[in-house]
Design brief:
It is a single chain. The protein is an alpha/beta fold. The chain has one domain: Spore Coat Polysaccharide Biosynthesis Protein SpsA, Chain A. It contains 13 helices and eight strands. The protein has an eight-stranded mixed sheet, with helices on both faces. Helix 1 packs parallel to helix 2.
Amino acid sequence: MSRPLKCSVIIPTYNRALLLSHTLESLTRQSLPGDEFEVLVIDDGSSDETSLVVEDFSTRLNLRYFFQEDEGWRLARARNTGIANAAGNVCVFLDSGLLAHSGCLAAHVSSHEQSPVPLAICGYVYGFSVDNQDADVIAKAIDYSDPDGSIDRMTGNPEWQDIREGFYDIYTEEFHDLPAPWIIFWTCDVSAPTALARSVGGFDEAFLSWGGEDLDFGYRLFNAGAKFILNRQASAIHCPHPKSFAANNKSAMVNYRHMAEKYGTPIIRLLTEFPEDAPEDFTGYVTPWNLNQVIRERGLPSCAEYLANRGHVQGRRA
C-alpha cells in the first residue's frame, strides 16, 4: 500500500500560461521528494496554451489537470475542485506566477507535522505589492532559473519585502491570538490541513469576482480552531503581472458586503469600511493592517461571542 502524500499543491489558473510555467518549473526543484507531493492545476477555462504547459510538465511532476468551462470568475470552484481531489494530508494553495523557493513545500509540511493543533500557514511572498508598483524593476531582479538565489538577494531588502511585513512587525510571526488573524490569509502562498479544509466546506462559490474568498475561507478555518502563523521559510516570489488596486478593491467590496450579510458580526462588517479607491494616505481608514487594532479600539466582541450572545437573546425572545 502506498503511503499518503504529504501535500497537494493546488494552483488555479486562467490564461497565464507563461506565469504558470514559471511556477511549475520552481516546483520541479523542491527539496521535498517528488513522490511526497502532487500538483493539481485547475484551469478556469483558459484559451491560451495552458494545457500545453501542463502537458510539458506532466513527466516532471506528479501532476493532474482539471478544466472547467469559462463561465466567468469561478476561482472558488477551481480551488474546491483541488480540495475535493487532493490526495495529500495538507493543501498548499499557490497562485500561478509564484516562484517557490526550493524549501517552500518542505517548510509548509514540516510546520503542519510538528504542530499538535491544526495550522493555517501564511508563506512569505517577496515582491508582493498592492498595485504592481515597480513591476519592471522587480521583473529585472528575478532570475527565473534560480528562485533561491533571487530570494537570497531580496531577503532583508525593504524594496522586495512582502507587503504584509508591517503587519508581522506589529503582531509577530505567531499572530493567532488576534481577534481576526485571517485578515492576511491571502491564498497566493498558504496551506491548511486537507481534512480541515473539507470540513469547513472549502471556498464559498458565491464569490464570483476578485477578492475576499480567501478571507472567508480563513475566517471559517479560524472558527474551526486553526492556529494562524507565518512561516518565512515557506517563501516564494510574486512574479509581476498587470493588476489594478482600484479595480480589485471595487470588485472585492461586493464580496465583503456578501460576507457582512452572511455572517452579520461587527468584525466582519468592518470589511465594508475598507477604502474603495487608492488614497495616498490610508490614515483614518480601516485596512487589513490595522483591522485588529480597530477591533480592540472599538471594543468589538469576537465573532464567536457576538453570535453566542445573539443566539441567547433570540432564544429568550422566542
